[in-house]
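Now produce a polypeptide, keeping tokens residue-aligned:
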Amino acid sequence: MTRDPRDWAELVRSHARDAGLDLPIEVVEELAVHLHETYERARFRGETEAAARELARQTLEAATMADLADRARIADGRLVPRSTTSSKPHLAAGAWSDVRYAVRLLRRTPVFSGAIIGVLALSVGAVAAVASVVYGVLLRPLPYPGAERLVVLQKMDKSGRAGQTSSADWLDYSSRVGAFEGLTAYSSWAHNLSGDGEPLRLRSIITTGNFFQVLGSKPAFGRVYTDADDRAGADTVVVLSDGLWMRRFGGDPRVVGRTIRLNGNPAIVIGVMPPAFEFPSRDADLWMPIGMGPELRADRASEWLRTVARIRTGASAAAALDEAQAVASALAREYPATNAGEQVAIVPLEDTIVGEVRPALLAVGGAVAFVFLVTCLNVVNLLLSRASARREEMAVRLAIGASTWRVTRQALTESALLAGVAGAAGFAVGHALLRGFVALASDRVPRLHDATLDGTGILAAAVSSGLVLAVCVVTSAVSLNNAGQTLTPRVRVTRAHGVSPLLLAVQIAVSFVLVASSLLLAGSYLRLQQIPLGFDGDDVLSLRVTLPRAKYPDNASHARFADAVVREFAAVPGVASAGVVNDLPLAGNQMSFAITWEARIDDGRSAPRATVRIADPGYFTTLRVPLVKGRLMNADDTSTRELVVLVNKSAADQYFVGDAVDRRVRIGDGGEWRRIAGVVGDTRHAGLQAAEGPVIYLPYAQKPFAFINWMGFVVRAPHVAAMTGALKSRALAVDGSLPLYDVLLVEDYVARAQAPFRLNAWIVGGLAALSLILAAAGVFALASYNVAVRRQELGIRLALGASRPMILRLVLRQSLVLALVGIALGAAGTALVTRLLTALLFQMAPTDPRIHASVAAVLLVAALIAALPPAIRAATVDPLTTIRAESNSH
């Protein structure tokens, strides 16, 4: 005799062989554990080793093999244990024994255990990751004191679209709205940082002097500027972001007081902001005062400022809105030429930052909650299936003297171990999912880059693991309630069609909703890929640059620079063509002006607006923008020749009857007339979903606007990505002080525009795939459970003449009926849920019957495949064996 449980198991096998029995491994292991615990309890009470071994031997002999073979005595249909004299085990020793046995159980059924732990870990991890994202993006307070009192004042045009504010209007709202403690204005402005090191392109935020005071933000060190710094003639001062300070200046605090050069002009660094300050977005590099002079303060026509206000303590947003609307009405009366018909709105600052992503994140959160629900339902079905297979084991344990508390404690230990392992794995999965989501979407979801799996994620993982534990415990309790029962076939059929089928129907319904949603989003993404862009971006590299006004003050200098860079690019071996335009397609910028169209269609409207772009002939050749009529601009279209333009097809169709070529247009009220030399095709410029409106293209050599000092170059060549270094060197050869930025393939811009749809499709598609797998596993578990508890019934049917194909059809029919019920429920739910996806869809109807039919077919096939193995097992039941087992049980 020995203390090793493996030797106890061998002793049980030897004893069983002597009795002529072939016990299942589960019974052998259970008896071995029981003997080992008996031995340990005896030693704990102070018995000698020999006495403890003898007590264990007597226990084995008391549990006679005959009793085990006929499954003990039957009284009133309940399995009665032979011995009930076992004492309560020592808690510590017994608990450790329970854990060891639970571990062995998991290891003995690796597929089953791995399936449960895997789906639970994925679900718990998804819950933890999404909870962290939702908190980090939507619920985490903004890093400004009293952020709840910060609002955005938006001007609205006659059509209700939100616009920007002029500097003169900002002054009026600042002085006339008493509910505002302060109103600041800002705009994004690009600067080139030159001097020590490689030139850098910076995103600068130019603001009014009260910017930091309104936000209530303080620097990490140094100081912030005030109204005294925001006046004409004052020294130019800047406040650096933490990112730029670390990246360019190595985190040296002595940078305060240092003079740097922005666009060739000196500026004094007066402070550095802390890492959490990222207004208005994460990519802001520095902040500086606008320096408004009298002319700019009087400008009411140029609307280029965004505004943020802090509502005065004790005032309400509603009161502030009433005052602001009164001011808007007064300005409309005083300045009808610029302010007629304008209204204002007040929006919480938080809504302007995360408002666009809130519906999508909440939709993802709902989908994850659905998947977690499906997982719990699936675990219930899987545990019920396993419990039916372990009834005999439980009966044996009771037969050899285990108390109800002992069996219950073991079941609780198994449940806790299962939930604990799944929770720990789920936390690791959640961390990986969160990191992946941040990597995929941090540039499109504001505040996401700071999301971490900290308190919120840990709490979500703990709560979801607790719910899993509760599910496991309740399911185990249901199973243990009948562990000692010998059920009649009639009762077994009733049990098999109780709660579990209802849960499975709900599970299939949830899967239907998720799969339908994923197909809709995937369809939107595929259709988005098929949109004609109006240009060919394959094998085209783009580079952007902004010219400093001090060095390039006028249009002629801009044109000379653009022409020199294009010539340098064209001289690189392998380059097919090169060109330049002020705003690249899908790069996120375009300008519109009031246009006078000669002999346009008279529709009674005022002069319409059109987008204006500056380009050279190589731009259309390089991107292969089609020429519809007339000619492209050429090298003869210089500043000394006739002024010409190209218009796109939308402008030609919208404003002219017949041929638009040789008609004339004028940009703005004081602009010169320009002849239309040709018509080119429309391009997707503002976005893949945005149809192109009227566009006018001006030759770079005839550019009328000196303030347009930014430009984007395009270069076509086979394997152009490999030529990036050579092309950058050629551009820097023209002017080495200018930083090149956004050096990207044009197809990268296209991919960036498609990214939100691709991300949505991947997220919901992944959840749908997981849900579909879970639903199939649920069908398999329930079918297996039905076959296990109805094994004797099926054997009797076969003995009475039922054919095996008939039994096969019986089991499959039950599974398919449940699948049809779930599909019907899912179709009804999908009709409601997918309507919420309308804003995320492109050219896809949320109630598309083809989608619903496809999902129904997929689920039916999945249910059929999942139910087939248990059905085959049912059809191969040996009727003689089952009848004999039924007879022995009575």
Notes: Residues 64-93, 484-499 have pLDDT under 50 and may be disordered.
